[in-house]
Fold this protein.
Amino acid sequence: MVNEYWIARRGMAYGILCDASGFSGSVMPFVLQALLAKYGYRTTLRATAVALALLTGPLIPLLKGRLPPLERASSLRTNWTFVQNPLFWIYSVSNLLQGFGYFFPSLYLPSYASSLNIGGKSGALLLALMSICQVGGQLVFGLLSDHKVPLNLLACLSTVIAAIACLTMWRLAESLPVLIVFAVVYGFFGAGFTAIWARMSTAVTDDMTAGPIVFSLLNFG
C-alpha cells in the first residue's frame, strides 16, 4: 500500500512507518515496568494484548490503496522471476543473519543493567533511549537510500557499527553512562537497517506486482 503512494521518497516513507515502533518504544518500557511491578506478568500480558487489539483494530478499515480496485485486480498475477536474481538472495541472507542478532540487546539490556545495580528504572530508561534513537536512525537511513547512497554501504554501515558497539561498549560497560552511549549508538545504527528494505526491494525488481512480495519476504527474514 505504501508503494502506491510513495515512489521517489519511498525510503523516507518506510523510515517514518518504522519510526512508529520507536515512538511507542520510548514510552512503553516505563508503562510495562509499572504494570509488571503492580499486577505481575500474566495480567500485564493480557492487558497489553487487549490494548493492542482495541487501539489498532479500528484503524484497519482505514487502510485503503490509491489505485482503483479494478486496476489493482488486473495486476494480481505476481511476477516471480525475481527469485532468479542473485541480488535477492544476497539481501535475503544478509537480512536473515542481521535479524538473528538484532533483538538481543533490547532483550538483555534491562537485565544486564539490573545486574550492575545502577537503579531500578535504568533498564526502562535505556530501552526508551534506544527507541528514540531508532526513530532518528530509521529516518536518516531511509532518506539516504532515497538520495541514491549505495545500499551496500548503508547495510554495511548499519551492521558493522552496531556490531562494534556490542563488542566494545556493551561488553566493557560497568556504569550507566557507558550503557547510555551504547543504547544511543546501537539504536541509531542497528535499526537503520530495516529502513532500507524498501530500496532493497526496488533494487531487486521494478515490477509492480513483485515489489511488495520482495519486501514481505525481507520482513519475514
